[in-house]
């Protein structure tokens, strides 16, 4: 397990899947605003669920996020689009609705940075989010990500095109908060 100050990032367990699916993916609005893909219903236990991990997919590293003290599941996190030529990747984070606003998201991004820069030797990490997703904007800025621009009308979300904000962090800019295991 990778440890931050509040969260641990570990492999997905079978019993995490229905909890993450129900809270983060089953609702069309929550899904559509966070995923950048069209919502569609998924059967319980489907291997096509967005929270089912394919260990053979080398361009993604997927984690479940747990509270460091209690080990209770609090969310999901990933590095995706890992590009080993240009040494870059994208970050994805989803915190269960009952666990939001307690700093778990910010600490999860910090641990993903450690994983990306130290464990994987990447040079650049980036976060794209809807420009009005203020929690993600704060989570990125809390971790030193630089706002690099706005991608105008880049996301089709429930009947309209919305802007996305692009944030990037380079290895040499990264200031790790804590030594991490
Ligand atoms: C975005 C998300 C991961 C943040 O997780 P979290 O654990 O609540 O984040 P934190 O507690 O670390 O808070 C991060 C910042 O967002 C702010 N914040 C949290 N919830 C907020 C809300 N509903 N509205 C506005 N700001 C909010 C916090 O105040 C904090 O800012 P601060 O440090 O300046 O005070 C969580 O809201 C989530 O999973 N949302 C749905 C999925 C999603 O949008 N994923 C991102 C796709 S790119």
UniProtKB/TrEMBL annotation:
Keyword check for Ion transport: no
Keywords from the named record: Transferase
GO cellular component, as recorded: cytoplasm
Family matches, as PROSITE patterns: GNAT
Residues annotated as domain N-acetyltransferase: 7-163
Pfam families referenced in this protein's UniProt entry, alphabetically: Acetyltransf_3 (PF13302)
InterPro entries reported for this sequence: Acyl_CoA_acyltransferase, GNAT_dom, Ribosomal_N-acetyltransferase
Gene3D superfamilies: 3.40.630.30
Protein's name according to its UniProt entry: RimJ/RimL family protein N-acetyltransferase
Organism placement in taxonomy: Bacteria, Bacillati, Actinomycetota, Actinomycetes, Streptosporangiales
């Amino acid at each position: 397990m990778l440890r931050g100050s509040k969260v641990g990032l570990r492999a997905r367990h079978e019993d995490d899947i229905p909890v993450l699916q129900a809270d983060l993916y089953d609702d069309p609005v929550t899904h559509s605003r966070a995923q950048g893909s069209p919502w569609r219903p998924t059967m319980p236990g489907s291997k096509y669920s967005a929270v089912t991990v394919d260990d053979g997919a080398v361009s993604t590293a997927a984690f479940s996020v747990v509270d460091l003290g209690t080990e209770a599941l609090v969310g999901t996190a990933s590095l995706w689009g890992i590009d080993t030529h240009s040494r870059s990747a994208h970050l994805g984070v989803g915190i269960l609705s009952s666990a939001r606003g307690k700093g778990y998201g910010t600490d999860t991004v910090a641990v993903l940075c450690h994983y990306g820069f130290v464990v994987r030797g990447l040079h650049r990490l980036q976060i794209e989010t809807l420009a009005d997703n203020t929690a993600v904007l704060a989570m990125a800025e809390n971790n030193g990500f630089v706002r690099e621009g706005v991608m105008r009308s880049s996301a089709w979300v429930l009947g309209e095109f919305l802007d996305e904000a692009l944030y990037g962090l380079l290895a040499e800019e990264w200031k790790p908060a804590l030594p991490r295991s």
